[in-house]
Design goal:
CATH superfamily of the largest domain: Aspartate Aminotransferase, domain 1
Structural class: mainly alpha
Number of domains: 3
Helix content: 25-40%
Largest sheet: 2 strands, parallel
Length: 149
């Protein structure tokens, strides 16, 4: 499989947070949209085809994560990181932002301090402050070779 990572796809006018809200957040459309984790590459054909194939079924009812779902995750971690994980360790989250908030609620109490190391994805700040936690900034420092420490 080969992918064209140089192909530019115009995302403006598609209700893209990354592109269409630059003026809202930064008072300018000229900001390079590197402030949010959003894919800039075309979704591979096999993924789009699988979604289209599933969408052909006439009912979109409630689904569950079957054993194959968990097995794939377990095998991926084994293959990529040599980590031996168990099915019971896997918890579903619909995205990183809900996961951040759930972790804060599960592992801390109101008024607890939470360290955030800017520059970082902006929802990290809200995950602390919106749940009455105390935000502690540990600003990363950029070295001469453009690496943050």
């Amino acid at each position: 499989m080969s992918y064209d990572f140089d192909k530019l796809i115009d995302r403006q006018g598609t209700s893209s947070v990354k592109f269409d809200l630059r003026k809202t957040f930064f008072d300018s459309d000229e900001v390079l949209p590197m402030w949010v984790a959003d894919m800039d590459f075309e979704t591979p054909d096999f993924i789009r085809e699988a979604i289209v194939e599933r969408a052909k079924h006439p009912i979109y009812g409630y689904t569950f994560r079957d054993d194959a779902y968990y097995q794939y995750i377990i095998e991926w971690f084994e293959r990529r990181h040599n980590w031996h994980i168990q099915k019971e360790w896997i918890v579903f989250s619909p995205g990183i932002v809900p996961a951040l908030n759930l972790v804060v609620l599960a592992l801390t109490q109101p008024k607890d301090e939470i360290i955030v190391q800017p520059p970082v994805y902006f929802p990290f700040f809200g995950a602390a402050t919106e749940h009455d936690r105390v935000l502690i900034y540990n600003q990363l420092v950029k070295s001469d070779n453009n690496i943050y420490h």
